[in-house]
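Run log, item B.
One chain of 143 residues. Sequence copied directly from the ordering sheet:
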Amino acid sequence: MAPSISFFKASADWQIKYNLSGSFLHKNLPANVHLLTLELWDSNTALIRLEHQYEKDEDPDLSTNVTVSFKNLFVSFDVLSVREVSLSANQFVEDATRLKWKVMDSDQMMPSNKKPIPVSPKTLNVLLSPMQIRSFLATIKGH
């Protein structure tokens, strides 16, 4: 299918009549954080994925842990609570059981049982480490 090119005669004040830019965030995210997914699942639930974009030791300032708060982050809705889910969003992190394997020439099992730092229900602050992606099912309330 070929692209379709179209034109229209616009008035001189069209840029004033129409909002050509905007943001759905009240505040900018930190420079090392990317909003990877914002998907409404129903009128009061959204899937939100945040991604730390830098590797450890890639940048002296941006390769550090960073905290993002869901409180007052979005313009059109408030986040009331979050529950962390797996990357594929098919199970809650606290219910997930991961496969383990033994590394040759080591007594250590992989991966470790390390769980991410939970999100406080009061602050709704999320801690992201370098290269980490965290996924959440958020209970939201529209404005």
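Observations after the first pass:
- Residues 43 and 140 are 8 Å apart (CA to CA).
- The first helix runs from residue 14 to 17.
Flagged for discussion on Thursday.
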